[in-house]
Amino acid sequence: MVRPVINLWNQLSIFWKIFLTSMILLTSMVIIGEMADDFGRWLIQGQGHGFEEEDIIDEIVWWLLSIFVFSLAASWLFSRIITRSLIRLAGFAKRISGGDTGFRVPAPEVNRGDEIGELARGFNQMTDSLVKLLDNERRLIRDISHDLRSPLGRIRITVAILKEKLLNSLSKADQKYLSQLDKDVDRLERLLTMTLEQARLTSTTTLGVEKNAFNLASLARSSALDMSYRAKEEDKEIQVIAPEKLTAKGDEEILKRALDNLLDNALRHTQDGSTVVLKLYQREKDLVVEVKDHGQGVSEESLGDIFNPFFRTDQARRLDSGGFGLGLSIVKQAVTLHGGQVEARNVRGEDGQILGLMITLYLPEMA
């Protein structure tokens, strides 16, 4: 019996907790006061209070109504004072979780002397600590990437010299090892380049993005042309569906790299002999960019995670693709810096079978 009552109490809002508490307290005070008054009269008069029955009922009804109205008003006032600040703190938390790590809870909440003020100060301290941890992580990745560039450069030069001087004198097995070493160096250099790019975008604020007007449709065609040579080598195609002009405003270089990474990801996962579709159009005040492949798609529970740094899906997809899990993270960072949004969904046929993955960018018209 006690456990259900406790569970019910825990589910109540602050308003109803205060309301019930105040009603219980006020009712107890009135009952105790009436009992003390009746007991005093009995001692003095040697009999009951002498009230008529109707008077007693009217008095009880009046007291209960007064208690209810007072409790309701007091509960609304108290809950309003408490929940208003909690709602504001929840809004501040959403703002920070949305990427505004420079924001802190302002003075009205921080300067309070009650528990709300203590919570606000603790919230700011937690945010400061979190930002420091993130900055240290980004700095570590950036420093390691820079430090690895020099030895990788020396390895590349050494491999080039060996291939030039010893390639003809080496056995086929040794030549294969040397070629594999050259490919591994290329892969490591690409990883370092993408890691540095991701770290740079993460540390960039929207204020640091250049705001220049450019033709987004032309930029998309340029990106498709750059990737078309690779597509032909892999027996794949890129189809661009876009108007002649689609004016955007933002950093053209950052968005160009985002488009390159989108197409690179699509080409990596689309089937041989298939077509990657790059479609651009305007929807109300947004410029929409869609990239659709014809691959195996992504599990529904992983759709929200593919934009996280270094996230990769199942092992088979990982080994076939050779990606690092940074391309789509760079895409999201670039779009976020321009005030846009990105989403991914599986494209399904009428029978529910997955036909591919579609990634959609929503950019403000004047990003």
Tell me what you see in this structure.
The chain is α+β, with helices and mostly antiparallel strands and 367 residues long. It has 3 domains: 97 residues, no CATH class; 65 residues; 157 residues, 2-Layer Sandwich (Heat Shock Protein 90). It is 62% helix and 13% strand. The chain has 10 helices and 7 strands. A hairpin with a 5-residue loop joins strand 6 and strand 7. The protein is elongated.
The SSE order reads: HHHHHHEHEEHEEHHEE
Named at the architecture level, the CATH assignment of the largest domain is 2-Layer Sandwich
Helix proportion: 55-70%
Structural shape: elongated
Overall pLDDT: 77
Give, in spatial order, the strands making up the sheet with the most strands: 2-4-5-7-6
Question: For the report, how would you describe the main beta sheet?
Answer: 5 strands, mixed
The helix tally amounts to 10
* Strand segment tally: 7
Short description:
The chain has 367 residues and is α+β, with helices and mostly antiparallel strands. The protein has helices at residues 2-11, 14-45, 53-97, 107-110, 115-166, 172-203, 216-233, 252-269, 315-321, 327-337, and strands at 212-215, 237-241, 247-250, 275-283, 286-292, 341-348, 354-364.
List keywords for this structure.
367 residues, alpha+beta, Heat Shock Protein 90, five-stranded mixed beta sheet, two-stranded antiparallel ribbon, 7 strands
Write the layout of secondary structure elements.
Elements: H1 2-11, H2 14-45, H3 53-97, H4 107-110, H5 115-166, H6 172-203, E1 212-215, H7 216-233, E2 237-241, E3 247-250, H8 252-269, E4 275-283, E5 286-292, H9 315-321, H10 327-337, E6 341-348, E7 354-364
Parallel strand pairs: 2-4
Antiparallel strand pairs: 1-3, 4-5, 5-7, 6-7
